[in-house]
Design a protein that fits this description.
The complex is a heterodimer of chains A (215) and B (222).
Chain A (H helix, E strand, L loop, with lengths): L8 E10 L2 E11 L4 E5 L6 H9 L6 E6 L2 E2 H4 L1 H4 L2 E4 L11 H11 L6 H13 L12 H14 L4 E5 L7 H16 L3 E5 L11 E5 L6
Parallel strand pairs in A: 3-8, 3-9, 6-7, 7-8
Antiparallel strand pairs in A: 1-2, 1-4, 4-5
Chain B lengths: L1 H17 L2 H21 L3 H24 L1 H9 L1 H6 L5 H16 L1 H12 L5 H28 L6 H28 L5 H30 L1
């Protein structure tokens, strides 16, 4: 259906409107395997909106997003299989423990994660000793780490991360950077918004600035 | 397909067990509403027997509506709902799981409690049996239909009132056949036909409501 040279994810003349305000229009770009896209722009320039559109949560005003040549609207669950989206909200339940959150997320994402591996991953991400506390008792940064633990167990090709570094301490920022770069080096795609300039520099990094003219 | 369904049910039941107060509010509301009528009307058994099916059913209807808002609102607030929409699982399966868990927590206690409340109205044993069976068939349908309204009003301010206005008219058929089944049994006509209609409504809402609900959830997250 598609030739090998075609980038995996194509954005074609996308326009998004929030309320009465047009955030961007005629936005076209493509991302291929092994690329990291750093999305920049001032507050309110439409970064989150663009990411939500790319995840398929939000219907763009016009234009389309194609995954291997097919509109993601028609692919739906088939596209979701390749996708990991982490938004402003952590997407974890405060009444469940970190292990439970991670395991349920895994089952819903379509793979099995046993208890032992869940404990191990949460330990790796710096939550040792907190694995079976209800996450509502954790700090902001620790909750963020629980959410980010999904990155370590998931096999999704496309990562869409909205401000993943917020609330994280220096060690966690470093760890997350390494994880993202390892994902990209392994042929994955990462689309990230962040205000932390240093974090995103790598040989495959591309930058798009929203709100200051178009790409 | 069934594994995610079971996990969703287990997840929601675990959460419900860890915050038990939410369960009891629905049940206590039901008990109080249904108990108020005999107190207000007085101990005329003839009158009480006559109004029993309607009162218990309206009480169950209002109680289950009261609980509707909780189905999706917490998941919407903490972002787990948007994550569910992004999984490779069909959203309607997840909706069925959530509604089923919600019914087990808020609907099933009503079914179990109803015969006890029916005693206040001097319902016969056959009448109590019919009441229980009709609620057993009817309340899951209420939860399924109500889930559409809950999804449509998700994230709205004053969504609660709007939810009632949206959902109550849709509850009317369930009310008519539910209360009708009890009445017909008490009067000796037999409630089988009413109960079959209730079962039909349950099956229809089991097929259609999750589809409508998942479409509404996608709009709510847009």
């Amino acid at each position: 259906m598609t030739d090998a040279a075609e980038p995996a994810l194509q954005i074609d003349r996308l326009a998004c409107v929030r309320g009465d305000c047009e955030l961007f229009r005629e936005l076209s770009f493509a991302i291929g395997d092994g690329e990291l896209l750093h999305l920049k722009g001032h507050n309110g320039s439409g970064k989150t909106t663009l990411l939500r559109a790319l995840a398929g949560l939000l219907l763009p005003e016009s234009g389309e997003i194609r995954w291997h040549g097919q509109n993601i609207r028609s692919l739906r669950e088939e596209y979701s299989r390749h996708l990991l989206y982490l938004g402003h909200l952590n997407g974890i339940k405060g009444d469940l423990t970190a292990v439970e959150n991670l395991r349920i997320g895994a089952v819903l994402d379509g793979f099995d994660l046993d208890d032992k591996r869940a404990w191990q991953v949460l330990g790796d991400i710096g939550l040792r000793g907190r694995e079976d506390l209800p996450t509502k008792h954790l700090s902001q940064g620790q909750k963020r780490r629980v959410a980010l633990a999904r990155l370590l167990v998931n096999s999704a090709r496309v990562w869409i991360l909205d401000e993943p570094f917020t609330a994280l301490d220096v060690a966690a920022v470093q760890l997350l950077q390494d994880v993202i770069h390892a994902h990209v080096d392994g042929g994955g795609i990462a689309i990230v918004t962040t205000h932390q300039e240093v974090a995103m520099i790598g040989e495959h990094t591309r930058t798009i600035v929203l709100g200051a003219g178009h790409v | 397909m069934f594994e995610p369904l079971l996990w969703i049910i287990r997840r929601d039941l675990t959460i419900a067990m860890r915050r038990r107060s939410d369960i009891f509010t629905t049940l206590i509301f039901f008990v109080i509403v249904v108990s108020l009528f005999p107190l207000g009307i007085g101990p005329e058994l003839e009158t009480l027997r006559l109004i029993a099916p309607g009162i218990v059913w309206v009480g169950a209807l209002l109680a289950s509506m009261l609980a509707l808002e909780q189905i999706f609102s917490a998941d919407h607030r903490d972002g787990t709902l948007e994550q569910m929409l992004l999984t490779p699982q069909p959203v309607s399966i997840l909706v069925i799981g959530k509604v089923l868990a919600h019914w087990l927590v808020t609907g099933l206690p009503l079914v179990v409690m109803a015969p006890l409340l029916g005693l206040q109205y001097d319902l016969s044993a056959a009448g109590l049996g019919a009441l229980m069976v009709s609620l057993l068939l009817g309340t899951p349908a209420l939860s399924l239909i109500g889930a559409i309204g809950a999804a449509l009003t998700l994230g709205l301010r004053s969504g609660g009132v709007l939810l009632a206005l949206l959902v109550l008219p849709l509850y009317i058929p369930v009310l008519i056949f539910g209360a009708g089944a009890v009445e017909a049994t008490v009067s000796g006509l037999g409630g089988a036909s009413h109960l079959s209609m209730l079962a039909a409504i349950l099956v229809a809402s089991l097929v259609l409501a999750p589809l409508a609900t998942s479409a509404a959830l996608r709009v709510a997250e847009d």
